[in-house]
Specification:
Radius of gyration: 18 Å
Strand content: 5-15%
Number of helices: 10
Helix content: 40-55%
Structural class: mainly alpha
Order of helices and strands: HEEHHHHEHHEHHH
Shape: globular
Length: 238
Amino acid sequence: MHSVLRSMMGDLPVSEHRFFPARSTPAGVRPAETDADRLVRRVMDVAVSILALCMLLPLFALVALLIKADSPGPVFFAQTRCGRGDRPFKMLKFRTMTSDAERRLAQVLAACPAARAEYERHHKLTHDPRMTRLGRFLRRSSIDELPQLVNVLRGDMALTGPRPYLPDERAEIGAALPVILSVRPGLTGLWQISSRNRSTFAERVAVDCAYIRHRSLKMDVLILLATIPAVVKARGAS
C-alpha cells in the first residue's frame, strides 16, 4: 500500500481518493455527525443485516456442516473486541482454526524468529499453522466474517467502520485510540478493501483513522459496494 501514513493528512493513494470528499479535517478531529446521520446509518445497518442474514441462512447451515466435518470443535468462534467507547463485546466468526490454536502459535513463535518478527509487525502469519483446511478457504473468501452480521444487528458493530481491535492492541494503537474508539467497528471498511494483509499494523491504524475523520454516508455506501469485488477477488485475505 502506498503512502498510507500520509493519507491521514489528505495525501491519499489514487485508489482511495474516490472514498473521500474534497474537504479536509484537522488531524485528530472527527467531523460532528448529526442525529439524522446517526439514525440513517443505524437504520441501514439493521435493514441490511436482517436482509443478509435471511438470504444467507442456507450458506450458514452448509458452512456449519462443513466445519464439523473438517475438524473437531465448535462451529462459531467468539472473541472479545473493543467496541465504541471501549465497550467490550464478543465478535462472532466461523471457526477457522484448530482447537489448540494458541498452543500452536506459541510453539511457532518460540521456534522461528522470522515468524515471530512477522507476527509482531502484522499481528498475523502468512503461513499460519493454526488454520484448518476449510479455514483457509473461509478466510480467503471472507465467509468466516459473515456471522458478524449478528453483531451489526445487535449494535456491537456497524456495516462499515474501523476494524474491531483486540483489547491487547490498545497500547500499540497509542495516541490514535480515542479516534478509533469514537465509532462502532465495522464488518467492512477502508482498510479491508484497500490493503488487508499487505499492510503493517501501524498502517492499518492510519487508514482507520483517515476513514473516521472523513466518514460520511456516501463514503460508507461506496465502501460497501467496493467490498463485493474485493471479496470476490479474495484481495489480500488470509
